[in-house]
Amino acid sequence: YGCRAWVNFNGTGTVAIRASGNVTSITDNGTGEYTLNFTTALPDANYSVVGSCGTGAAGNDDFNLTTNFNATTTTTSTRVGSQRANTGVLTDVAFISVAVFR
Fold it and tell me: Between vectors from CA 38 to CA 48 and to CA 70, what angle results, nearest 5°?
């Protein structure tokens, strides 16, 4: 089973896609909350979403990428969230990478 969609984007300020495959756009739903919109719909919603995120700056902060964040997956989009690992507070970060496998 292959990667059906992937994206590398900047989640700060105006969200900007650096590179992607089968991701047409990203909706900024608020601080640390994003919807990834697929160019071509997936065959069903039984896929796996994995990823990572960070600020790209030196420091002691660790960040987690939460997949399927506050939403049910659909064939045309999925939601992710970036949050501080030590507090769980949603945070915009500069480097977010996500891959979708089915």
Answer: 55
Q: Is a pLDDT exceeding 90 seen at residue 71? A: no
pTM value? Answer: 0.91
Integer CA distances (angstroms), 16 to 38, 61, 67, 95, 100, in order: 15, 23, 19, 10, 19
A 10 A CB-CB count for 44 gives 10
pLDDT for position 27: 96
Give one DSSP letter per residue of 57-99, joined into a string: S-SS--EEEEESTTS---SSEEEEEEEETTT--B---SEEEEE
